[in-house]
């Protein structure tokens, strides 16, 4: 019982002390306001200035201002001070709330995250030294521009120290819409790229396409492949997808892009999908060997009995492939028709003459050649709508062709491209479904080919590449950038575990007959719990780099950088041009008898 009595007594003292402090916090400023307001009131009504006696002013104002009227004292020494105190308290509360929100937002320092010394290999000196060793052209340079050393990811949170990924890293960025993936990652990376740039996107106006078009046109040629007319631009290029399909492997890869664009990764193993893809591969091979347009394949799919592809394969020594094709054609009609119909659906976009024009020879239109592109400082914009089916298959096939041409050129150049090639695969899960992209990640960086695959969520990648494929890409990525908007609780918890725990000091107090005692102990606590990862504010991102502690970054959107006004003006002009072309394209046709019906 005595200890309980002691605790109760101590709690009573604490309550009384807090009450006294609270009363003082109100009475002291209120008495001073009463003295100041009373003097001002007396002065305005012709009275004199009273001596400094705030307590008297609050309790007995008539003693300080005996000649003032009762109404004047009521207003000046009672009502006005209370109103002023309420106003000051409200203002202080608002300012404190704003300060708390800012400290809890992007400026909040999180104990346990990487400090500068923990992430030194991604900072200026180390990344510059690495660039000299990776790029022979920079080996003897006295001064190297920051843009030539690596890709800017952001600043270490709360500092001005830049964090960059080197030109041997490969990255995956998982960022929700409007979390800075385009403004803070894609656009700055494209603008600073020293070599060729490849961008896939499902948008044009107000996106990376318009923001970087003029800037990239100043350093090289800009190629735009827009089969679904997202930018409504004139067709100024064509690309031959059959150029890499003169081998069975090449034809199989091309068919695989049509399969991936039409069927999710979990469904690509069924009989009809595989059979349809095999037929496409055999017909692509025949068309490539015959050096005909890819649209010949649609003619052969429409008439399975056409022996032209069989004869072409046999004439070029592919007798086994011809036998396989013959077996399918002469097999049970129900099975054959099902396989051919599946293949027709996969390649249906080639029936659209506007889409097919981008991948068939065109008079007076230059041909895009990946082998020449990878040795230039040109830019290739590949645009397709979400769910574009065969159109997105052509986008994926072109991107794949460019990366394979870059790999071949790197091997001829001694192992690496110099300058490196940047491949920004934005909306990759929608418009650039390269089936074996996770496998390519294991060696692209070592060739000077720097892919940055941007996804909206981890599950989006799983849907395209399957659990094993997405896990392989995640593991092979030497840099992972996680932005705001992570709503997957399992993935958020996974990130939380990767960030790790830290020691937290815990203080406990106990009371006994001999008095109060305090003890300090340490316990493990998550550095960044899953709920805080979900609540990451816009403008910040987590960075996971191989062999380094996880770091919190302040992103650097392009519109806050030097030269932003000029870039913004160029982007606005390009966006307005797209709008104007769209309006002109869809305007009603005029005739001598008035508008067309």
UniProtKB/TrEMBL annotation:
Annotated Low complexity bias: 506-521
InterPro entries in the record: P-loop_NTPase (IPR027417), T4SS-coupling_protein (IPR051539), TraG-D_C (IPR032689)
Ranges where the TraD/TraG TraM recognition site domain occurs: 420-538
Species annotation: Streptomyces bungoensis
Region Disordered, annotated ranges: 504-524
Alphabetized Gene3D superfamilies for the sequence: P-loop containing nucleotide triphosphate hydrolases (3.40.50.300)
Domain of life of the native organism: Bacteria
Protein's name according to its UniProt entry: TraD/TraG TraM recognition site domain-containing protein
Keywords: Cell membrane, Membrane, Transmembrane, Transmembrane helix
PANTHER family for this protein: CONJUGATIVE TRANSFER: DNA TRANSPORT
Cellular component GO terms, alphabetical: plasma membrane
CDD domains reported in the protein's UniProt record: TrwB_TraG_TraD_VirD4
Any Pfam family matching the protein: TraG-D_C
Membrane topology note: Multi-pass membrane protein
Keyword Acyltransferase carried by entry: no
TM segment ranges: 15-35, 73-97
């Amino acid at each position: 019982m005595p200890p309980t009595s002691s605790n109760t007594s101590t709690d009573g003292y604490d309550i009384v002390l807090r009450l006294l402090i609270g009363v003082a916090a109100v009475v002291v400023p209120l008495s001073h306001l009463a003295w100041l307001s009373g003097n001002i009131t007396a002065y305005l009504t012709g009275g004199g200035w009273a001596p400094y006696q705030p307590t008297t002013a609050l309790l007995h104002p008539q003693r300080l201002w005996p000649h003032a009227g009762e109404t004047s004292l009521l207003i000046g020494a009672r009502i006005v001070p209370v109103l002023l105190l309420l106003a000051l308290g409200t203002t202080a509360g608002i300012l404190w709330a704003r300060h708390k929100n800012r400290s809890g937002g992007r400026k909040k320092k999180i104990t346990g995250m990487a400090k500068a010394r923990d992430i030194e290999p991604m900072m200026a000196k180390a990344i510059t030294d690495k660039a000299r060793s990776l790029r022979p052209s920079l080996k003897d340079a006295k001064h190297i521009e920051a843009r030539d050393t690596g890709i800017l990811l952001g600043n270490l949170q709360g500092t001005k120290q830049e964090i960059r990924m080197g030109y041997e890293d490969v990255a995956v960025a998982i960022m929700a819409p409007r979390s800075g993936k385009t403004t803070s990652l894609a656009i700055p990376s494209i603008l600073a790229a020293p070599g060729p740039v490849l961008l896939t996107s499902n948008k044009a106006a107000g996106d990376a396409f318009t923001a970087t078009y003029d800037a990239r046109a100043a350093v090289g040629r800009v190629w735009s492949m827009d089969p679904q007319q997202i930018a409504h631009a004139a067709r100024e290029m064509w690309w031959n997808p059959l150029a890499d399909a003169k081998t069975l492997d090449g034809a199989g890869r091309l068919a695989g892009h049509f399969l991936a664009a039409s069927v999710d990764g979990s469904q690509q193993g069924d009989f009809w999908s595989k059979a349809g893809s095999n037929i496409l591969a055999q017909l692509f091979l025949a068309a490539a060997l015959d050096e005909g347009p890819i649209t010949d394949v649609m003619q052969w799919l429409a008439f399975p009995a056409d022996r032209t592809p069989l004869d072409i394969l046999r004439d070029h020594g592919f007798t086994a492939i011809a036998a396989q094709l013959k077996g399918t054609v002469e097999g049970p009609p129900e099975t054959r028709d099902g396989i051919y119909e599946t293949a027709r659906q996969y390649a249906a976009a080639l029936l659209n003459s506007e889409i097919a024009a981008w991948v068939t020879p065109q008079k007076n239109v230059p041909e895009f050649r990946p082998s020449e592109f990878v040795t230039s400082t040109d830019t290739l914009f590949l645009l397709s709508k979400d769910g574009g089916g065969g159109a997105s298959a052509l986008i994926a096939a072109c991107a794949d062709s460019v990366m394979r041409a870059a790999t071949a050129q790197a091997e001829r150049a001694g192992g690496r491209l110099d300058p490196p090639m940047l491949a920004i695969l934005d909306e990759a899960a929608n418009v650039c479904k390269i089936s074996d992209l996770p496998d390519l990640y294991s060696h692209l960086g070592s060739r000077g080919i720097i892919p940055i695959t941007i996804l909206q969520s981890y599950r989006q990648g799983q849907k395209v590449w399957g659990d094993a494929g997405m896990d392989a890409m995640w593991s092979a990525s030497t840099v992972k950038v996680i932005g705001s908007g992570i709503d997957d609780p399992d993935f958020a918890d996974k990130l939380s575990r990767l960030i790790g725990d830290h020691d937290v000091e815990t203080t406990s107090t106990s009371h006994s007959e001999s008095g109060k005692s305090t003890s300090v102990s340490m316990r493990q606590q998550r550095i960044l719990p899953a709920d805080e990862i979900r609540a990451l504010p816009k403008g910040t991102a987590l960075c996971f780099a191989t062999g380094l502690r996880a770091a919190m970054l302040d992103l650097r959107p392009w519109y806050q950088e030097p030269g932003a006004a000029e870039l913004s003006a160029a982007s606005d002009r390009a966006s307005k041009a797209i709008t104007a072309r769209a309006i002109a394209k869809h305007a009603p046709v005029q005739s001598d008898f008035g508008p067309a019906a």
